[in-house]
């Protein structure tokens, strides 16, 4: 597997790697550790991790997007070295577009199978802060490189439809569902109505202003955690203004479910004007489901539509007033909060990793033919 961010903060990659390992595959992940936060090589739960750090020349470049060609080259060289030293892998599994060039080079050099795992539509994601010309190049590059893939994996039917429009390769949906932890509803044991958000601290998730919005609501507690990137420091400072807001900082992904169980409701305000947000399906959705917790999420998004269909939370407009009203509604109506939580757990029986794992393993079986 090729991954452009630390393995320890990417639950999708961990779950896929672990599922393959449990099914009898050997798995090595070559990752780009941009901040040199982890060991150069280690084994985590049986998964071999090999890390690429920023070189001297990479440090001279201002933006990660423009460091990508060097990352691709170093990842390719790491893969070749592994192969030469006896690790004769059969498949290179590329997580997102910023690994696909390296995967293509390995396929071309070694004749291995190539899997492209599109976590999102990459062009929409970078369009948030990149010039149009760069976005167009990225879309063109993806369309060209997909022709060399043997199988494509993605996260939702909307992303699948986009990928089908630009290539004729087989495509499977493997959602970011979580492991089912039980089928019996467990009510939250909170002294104060508690709201949780663990995820990306970005302006498209209403940060940092959401801290002021929720922090000003009476008789609630707001727990926040997120990676050390984007608005991390600003959110941390903003949280210090409120006695009812607790900032946990960065936490390992294996603590997310435990933390979610300790809350009453999960909040996930995603900006619907962002194309990537509209068609994506938030991880928070599945975390809330397996914990039996209702979610407050933005209407006009794929996640919002799913929440309505499953009746497992409240959908709101992307503004302070709507968010406050939804929180106060659930805070003051325990029966509604519990009903939505039970619906969420019921939905998790359908949307859980066990079912997604089977689809992933089916993909790998097809590659043997």
Could you explain how this protein is built, in words?
The protein is an alpha/beta fold and 369 residues long. It folds into two domains: 2-177 and 353-367, 3-Layer(aba) Sandwich (Rossmann fold); 193-350, Glycogen Phosphorylase B (Rossmann fold, 3-Layer(aba) Sandwich). Helices cover 45% and strands 17% of the residues. 40% of the residues are buried. The model has no long low-confidence stretch (mean pLDDT 95).
Question: What's this entry about, in short?
Answer:
The chain has about 375 residues and is an alpha/beta fold. Helix content is about 45%, strand content about 15%.
- Give the uncertain stretches in residue-range form: none
CATH classification class of the largest domain: Alpha Beta
CATH architecture of the largest domain: 3-Layer(aba) Sandwich
Number of separate structural domains: 2
- The helix-and-strand class reads alpha/beta
Instruction: Give me the CATH fold name of the largest domain.
Output: Rossmann fold
**Biggest pleated-sheet summary:** 6 strands, parallel
End-to-end separation: 20 Å
Overall average pLDDT: 95
Strand line-up of the largest beta sheet: 11-10-9-12-13-14
CATH superfamily of the largest domain: Glycogen Phosphorylase B
From the alpha carbons, calculate the radius of gyration and give it in angstroms: 21 Å
Succession of helices and strands: EHEEEHHEHEHHEHEEHEHEHEHHEHEHHH
């Amino acid at each position: 597997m090729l991954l452009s961010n630390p393995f320890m903060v990417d639950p999708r990659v961990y779950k896929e790697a672990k599922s393959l390992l449990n099914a009898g595959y050997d798995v090595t992940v070559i990752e780009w550790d941009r901040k040199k936060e982890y060991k150069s090589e280690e084994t985590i739960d049986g998964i071999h991790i090999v890390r690429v750090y920023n070189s001297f020349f990479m440090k001279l470049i201002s933006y990660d997007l423009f460091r990508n060609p060097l990352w691709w080259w170093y990842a390719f060289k790491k893969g070749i070295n592994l192969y030469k030293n006896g690790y004769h892998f059969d498949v290179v599994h590329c997580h997102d577009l910023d690994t696909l060039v390296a995967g293509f080079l390995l396929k071309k050099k070694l004749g291995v199978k190539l899997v492209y795992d599109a976590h999102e539509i990459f062009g929409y994601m970078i369009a948030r802060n990149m010039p149009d010309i760069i976005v167009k190049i990225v879309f063109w590059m993806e369309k060209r490189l997909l022709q060399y893939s043997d199988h494509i994996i993605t996260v939702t039917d909307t992303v699948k439809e986009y990928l089908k429009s630009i290539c004729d390769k087989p495509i499977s949906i493997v959602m970011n569902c979580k492991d089912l932890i039980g089928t019996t509803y467990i009510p939250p044991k909170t002294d104060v109505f508690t709201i949780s958000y663990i995820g990306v601290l970005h302006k498209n998730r209403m940060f940092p202003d959401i801290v002021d919005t929720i922090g000003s609501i009476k008789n609630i507690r707001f727990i926040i955690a997120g990676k050390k990137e984007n608005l991390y420091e600003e959110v941390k400072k903003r949280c210090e203004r409120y006695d009812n807001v607790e900032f946990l900082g960065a936490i390992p992904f294996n603590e997310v479910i435990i933390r979610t169980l300790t809350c009453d409701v999960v909040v996930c305000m995603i900006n619907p004007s962002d194309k990537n947000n509209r068609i994506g399906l938030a991880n928070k959705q599945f975390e809330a489901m397996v914990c039996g917790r209702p979610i407050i999420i933005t209407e006009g998004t794929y996640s919002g539509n799913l929440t309505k269909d499953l009746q497992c939370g409240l959908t709101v407009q992307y503004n302070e007033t709507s968010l406050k009203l939804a929180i106060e509604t659930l805070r003051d109506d325990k029966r509604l909060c519990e009903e939505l939580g039970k619906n969420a757990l019921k939905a998790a029986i359908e949307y859980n990793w066990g079912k997604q794992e089977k689809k992933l393993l089916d993909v790998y079986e097809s590659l043997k033919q």
